[in-house]
Amino acid sequence: MEYVYAAMLLHTTGQEINEENVKKVLEAAGAEVDEARVKALIAALEDIDIDEAMAKTAVAAAAPAAATATPAAAEEEEEEEEDEEEKEEEAAAGLGALFG
Fold first, then answer.
1. How many CB atoms lie within 10 A of CB 25?
2. Which residues have CB under 8 Å from 93's CB, separation 6+?
3. Fewest Cβ atoms nearer than 10 Å: which of 61, 87, 96, 100?
């Protein structure tokens, strides 16, 4: 995974993603560099649009977060509806007392 992160970091900073730069990033991070994995990464990224891949990943990562937020929002909305119903009942009871 650190190899992909190195490539993403290089891309984000506008540097060329090549074997030498990936090795430098990994070494700076204190990772052991496997030459074969670096070469495989560079070959795999050759025909990849990194901006598009990162955007798809961000959307995929956001989807579960949105799904977990939805039940909480629904629960909050339900509580608001219950509070509103209670207020209406209290108002109706108050009016009933007036006309007794």
1. 22
2. none
3. 100
Grouping H, G, I as helix, E, B as strand and the rest as coil, residue 1 is coil
79 pLDDT above the threshold of 70:
yes
- Give the number of residues written for the chain: 100
Name the residue type at position 61. A
Instruction: Find, among 13, 12, 33, 36, the residue nearest to 22 by Cα.
Output: 33
| DSSP output for 10-77 | HHHTT----HHHHHHHHHHTTPPP-HHHHHHHHHHTTT--HHHHHHHHHHHHHHHHHHHHHHHHHHHH
Does the pLDDT at position 1 exceed 50? yes
pTM summary value: 0.57
